[in-house]
Amino acid sequence: MAASRRTLVILYALHSWAGIVTGLLLFIVCFSGSVVVFKNEIDLWANPSLRALPHVAQLVGPDLVLKNLAERYPGSKPESLWYPDTINPAWMAFIKPADKPERMKIAVRADTGEVIGPVDSELGQFFRMIHVFLFFGPRWIVGFLGVAMFFLIVSGFVIHRKILKELFTVRWRKSLRVTGSDLHKSLGIWGLVFHLMIAFTGAWLGLTPVFERAYSYVSGSGGARPAAMKMRDKMAEQPARAVSINALLQQAQQDMPGLQPNRIALRDTGKPNASVILLGPVDDLWFSNARVTYQGGKLKEKNDPRQNGFWSQFNGLMEPLHFGDYGGIVMKWLYFLIGLSPALLSLSGTLLWMERRKLKQRNRAVAAGAQHV
Question: What is the mean pLDDT of residues 89-102?
């Protein structure tokens, strides 16, 4: 019993200090994450010119989009194209202008291919940058916050495990500290499964790339390949051959039947070894980590999660589960409302800690005064 009590005291101290150290950052990440669920809706709301565009069933092809972009922005390099969807009615192109250091997000009409111009606002993307990178930091920082959040949830459950018997009990007529403590514990228990899922998927998305790069470095698979680099330089000296992305889209249906591209990434545009990467969901699966890569117009590699086994499918689940973009508007609202609770937990936990500190200081002062009497 004594050992168990001592363990709980240590766990409570770790829980408290972990919450204090990470509380502000967790509040920022969790609050921005709940807002990011509506990223596309926010971007559309912030751009009135896009809201006026029609949703069309028959889209112009990416070749026409790229042609019109090249005419409108000579010398620019296209980096990616995003398909119109149920929310956004326009093609979205990310390009690197020849006369500007930063890339631009350009809207293109889906029915005619007419270039509208740079979008007025990227408010939704602003919230995503805060959530994923804390705006300026590397993603692994947010990954470690996911680990901290997971520890806080588990340790809080162990510390307050008796709250399961009183899930519907909040002592409203007690002091503000007692009422706040009851709400803090109840909120954590009611959202337990969701909070664990968000913490785990956030940690996975943030830290998996770090471990993958470390493994590649240690194993030597990520080292330089001089022969390949020489071959690439030799190819770059050859005249470029235009590659039709429309044709590659048709070819992709043979190379990966059922692929539904929603994004096209472009690398080394204008060079013989130019890469076109088609990304999107595939039939029979509701997550979107399928990928087909063409280099120089020829198939280079493909990632079909239907054929890659359990871990590929498991990894593909992480992002949709974390961002809630798989179940329509109802699921988004659920993610938003329940997603606010970790932010409230970090805030209420910090306030409760501060209140307990003040209470202890008052008790010490009273005890010290009584000794002098």
Answer: 89
* Extended beta strands in the chain, E state: 77-82, 91-96, 104-108, 115-118, 263-267, 275-280, 290-295, 298-303
- Cα of first residue to Cα of last residue in the chain, in angstroms, is 38
Tokens of 39: 């990223």
Return d(Cα 109, Cα 264) in angstroms, integer.
17
Q: Tell me the domain boundaries of the chain.
A: 2-41+128-206+333-368, 47-120
Residue type, 273: N
The pLDDT of residue 189 is above 80: no
Cα 189 from Cα 185, distance rounded (Å): 6
Pull the structure tokens for residue 370: 């009584």
pLDDT digits (tens, 9 = 90+) for 2-21: 447 788 888 888 888 888 88
pLDDT in tens, 211-230: 888 877 787 755 444 443 34
Q: What distances in angstroms separate CA 114 from CA 70, 123, 193, one per listed residue?
A: 12, 24, 47
User: How many other C-beta atoms are found inside a 10 Å radius of the C-beta of residue 240?
Assistant: 15
Q: How far is CA 203 from CA 136, 196, 213, 238, 323, in A?
A: 18, 11, 16, 44, 13
**Whole-angstrom Cα distance, residue 223 to residue 89?**
43
Give the residue carrying structure tokens 């500190």: 357
pLDDT at 248: 94
Residues 130/145, Cβ–Cβ less than 8 Å: no
Q: For the chain, give the longest Cα–Cα distance.
A: 95
When pLDDT is cut at 50, 70 and 90, the band that residue 65 belongs to is: very high
Contacts of 121 (CB under 8 A, 6+ apart): 43, 46, 47
**H helical segments located in 270-327:** 310-323
- Band of pLDDT at residue 34, cut at 50, 70 and 90: very high
What is the CATH T-level fold of the domain 47-120, as seen in this structure?
Nuclear Transport Factor 2; Chain: A, (3.10.450)
Q: What is the pLDDT of residue 232?
A: 42
* Bridge pairing between strands 263-267 and 77-82: antiparallel
Q: What SS3 string covers 347-367?
A: HHHHHHHHHHHHHHHHHHHHH
Report, as an integer, the average pLDDT of 84-107.
90
Residues 252/261, Cβ–Cβ less than 8 Å: yes
